[in-house]
């Protein structure tokens, strides 16, 4: 397991080893003990899988408030995404800053995003499937969002202006300035 720190404390890139042979390859995509040894002592309770048909589908930026805050371990089963985490921990020196990583079926990379972050991704190719493990259950009453293209966040999604494909909910998401972070 290759562990890659990012510019934001707590957000970590992980690349599990792939054992190649004539058939293809084998990889442990999640091993609690290996991650504990790497400093990530996490318990997951829910696995999610989403499929996005159009290229440039943006899902995010999303969060669940405490007591249902979710840490997420994200990877791509088919296609490619640019995965983004925005630090919204009020006491963090990097509050409001974002970090992004290309995750693809080919590169096998994973991004761990702890609680206290907004999370979103853009698909870079058609028919992209994303899988992620969560540390708490889906709790709609704690669900919230912030506009992915908020100028205050200035996230470089790497896609042409106005090309994002959004859900109705995400298209109406509040501004970052109107978001009162629930994360201490
Ligand atoms: C997230 C989620 C959604 N749903 C349902 C609610 C709704 O009817 C349908 C689609 O939900 P959404 O539009 O919220 O799905 P989506 O926009 O894919 O939301 C996800 O985006 C990424 C970026 C995340 O980080 C996730 O935590 C989650 O917020 O699925 C569940 O049943 N369980 C879940 O865990």
Description of the structure:
Its EC number is 5.1.3.13. Homodimer. It comes from Paramylibacter ulvae. With 184 residues, this protein is mainly beta. The chain has a single domain (2-178), classed as Jelly Rolls. The protein is built from two helices and 13 strands; from the N terminus they run E-E-E-E-H-E-E-E-E-E-E-E-E-E-H. The chain has helices at 32-37, 168-171; strands at residues 2-5, 12-15, 18-21, 24-27, 46-52, 58-64, 72-78, 80-87, 98-104, 110-113, 117-123, 128-134, 143-145. The relative contact order is 0.24. The model has no long low-confidence stretch (mean pLDDT 97). Residues 48, 50, 59-60, 62, 72, 119-121, 138, 167, 169 line the site of dtdp-4-keto-L-rhamnose.
Short key terms for the protein model shown above:
mainly beta; Jelly Rolls; RmlC_Cupin_sf; about 180 residues; 13 strands; RmlC-like_jellyroll; isomerase; six-stranded antiparallel β-sheet; binds dtdp-4-keto-L-rhamnose; dTDP-4-dehydrorhamnose 3,5-epimerase; single chain
Strand content: 35-45%
- Judged by helices, strands and strand pairing, the structural class is mainly beta
Which strand order does the major sheet show? 1-2-10-7-12-5
Order of helices and strands: EEEEHEEEEEEEEEH
| Average pLDDT, all residues | 97
Uncertain runs: none
What's the total number of strands?
13
Q: How many strands, which pairing sense, and closed or not: the largest β-sheet?
A: 6 strands, antiparallel
Rg for CA atoms: 16 Å
Q: Percent range for helical residues?
A: under 10%
CATH H level: which superfamily? Jelly Rolls
> Count of helices?
2
**CATH architecture assignment:** Sandwich
Coarse morphology? globular
Q: What oligomerization state is this entry in?
A: single chain
Span between N and C termini? 31 Å
Distinct compounds present = dtdp-4-keto-L-rhamnose
Catalytic activity: dTDP-4-dehydro-6-deoxy-alpha-D-glucose = dTDP-4-dehydro-beta-L-rhamnose
Function: Catalyzes the epimerization of the C3' and C5'positions of dTDP-6-deoxy-D-xylo-4-hexulose, forming dTDP-6-deoxy-L-lyxo-4-hexulose.
EC number: 5.1.3.13
Pathway: Carbohydrate biosynthesis; dTDP-L-rhamnose biosynthesis
